[in-house]
Amino acid sequence: MLNNGKLISKISYFYLDVFFSGFEGKKFRMDKHRFVIYQLLPRLFGNTKSVNVPNGNIDQNGCGKFNDISKEALISIAGLGATHVWYTGVIEHATCSDFSKYGIAADSPDVVKGQAGSPYAIKDYYDVAPDLAVDVNNRMAEFENLITRTHAAGLKVIIDLVPNHVARNYNSDAAPKGIEPFGKKDNKKVSFAKDNNYYYLPGTTFKPPLQISNEKPWKETPARATGNDCFSPTPSVNDWYETVKLNYGVDYPGDTQVDFEPEPDTWKKMLDIVLYWSQKGVDGFRCDMAGMVPVEFWRWMIGEVRSKFPEMLFIAEIYEADRYQDYIFKGGFDFLYDKVVLYDALRDVMEGKVPASGLTDCWQKTDGLHHFLLYFLENHDEQRLSSDFFMTVGHKAIPGMTVAATMFNNPLLIYFGQELGERGMDEEGFSGRDGRTTIFDYWSLKLIQNWRSNGDWTGADLPKAAAELRSFYQKLLTIIHQKPAFYKGRFYDLMWVNRHESFCHDKIYAFMRYEGGHCFLILANFSDKQQSYKLKIPLDAMDTCGMEKELFYNGIDLLGFNRPLQFPAAVALNGGIGGRLEPYTASIYELKGYVLD
């Protein structure tokens, strides 16, 4: 459909008969109306080895394979409520594992982070990571089979596009005939030229911050700029030193006027890459650090791709709220990360740093853009909800997760293990004990293995707390798929009228969702204590949401955490509805009105 002159990928709901419901094997049918993206790293997701050696290599710690993401695993993911799977780390990236016997050039550990390497240091845009294949020589076919299995489960496939930078040792041996490698025709004697693929630092030699290898030291003369816009031959360990910045025609080191006509060479090379994967059957791209690439490129490239693949989905990672509109309406993206507005605000509320009422200011900052924003509380960059650095246990995130899922109709991201309470507190190697699950190391996650069980992915071996948390996530996602108010309805914030002493606006956030005469009240308690409240619903809200002030209303908490509500509308208008919320819970009340006899 067209929205503000922009082509939006349409979502159709899926009819799935899957054998999954709270791990009870109950057959159910779910109609899916909201985008719910489930992110997973195949390297970790399918790893069945339980020996975790810090800094361990692939032989010691093992590695998940494409084939480990089985039909049963995908049915379980679909049963949770996902509509898409984002496979992170699919494209071949630099690694300390040696696959030279398969004709793949070995990498220098000097420019690899961790034993497994960063999924965002792409080594060959036209190949998949060899360590994810059972048969390395058949690796692309194994990935293509995964695409087929994912589609058969009623799910769509998203992979990463990493357009801003490549691995220092970028070396495509799988590119189709006629595709020139990056840098082949570059003029290395100048720092910038429009059709150079890289930025150079003439007269310098690159010096990695960690010189690990004596056998395969990394040599690079002249030095090239590092991926995070570091124009120095000696980047620090905190820079993206394992990567090289790609040149899209912007003269960062000089003062040349921007010139995008005709299109710079890097634009054309990146378009070929996107078309290559589109032809493989992927359904969308999560575009890494999209904000570091000119919006003019995105407008051109997305337009070219959509002329051949009209439904292709593009999601931008961007961290500047004042650029949201440009990347939506000029760049043509379907969705953008909303880290710096909703995520940051929710985290502050969840940690007690700001009052819950501050969420009103948060959503107002992006008013009119909500349908384009991807909401999340976890991904590979952020600390785990259950980590010691955040909420310590997963159930304390229930109010925040409920608010993120129910405020608007936009897509939602779930990071694998989030729904189980994965803590991210291992010290894996290059990734220290930082509250994140490593993307750099070979490792395994016990809770994922518990969920896998004997290969049927029923979760039979999950601890009770993990099973209960996953049941909450499934219930929440089912509600937003099946209740029209949460996929095509409207939002009404109740905080403006509940600043009185009988409502703890520091710890409780309240709003309504409505559509077609159906009205829902959402209450979230961000406190570690039970909260009593009196909630007012003003006449404007009743008129807007379709409530009638002459009726008596009751509501059952669809999440099952708190007691039902019963109240005359007149009480809600005047003194306020009385109720209690248990600690760290949220309620979704479906309000139904009737006339008292």
Automatic annotation (TrEMBL):
* Ranges of residues in domain Glycosyl hydrolase family 13 catalytic: 39-452
UniProtKB keywords: Glycosidase, Hydrolase
Biological-process GO terms, alphabetical: oligosaccharide catabolic process
Hydrolase listed as a keyword:
yes
The protein's matches in SUPFAM superfamilies, at most eight in alphabetical order, are given as: (Trans)glycosidases, Glycosyl hydrolase domain
Molecular-function GO terms, alphabetical: alpha-amylase activity
Q: Where are the transmembrane segments?
A: none
Top-level taxon: Bacteria
Identify this protein by name: Glycosidase
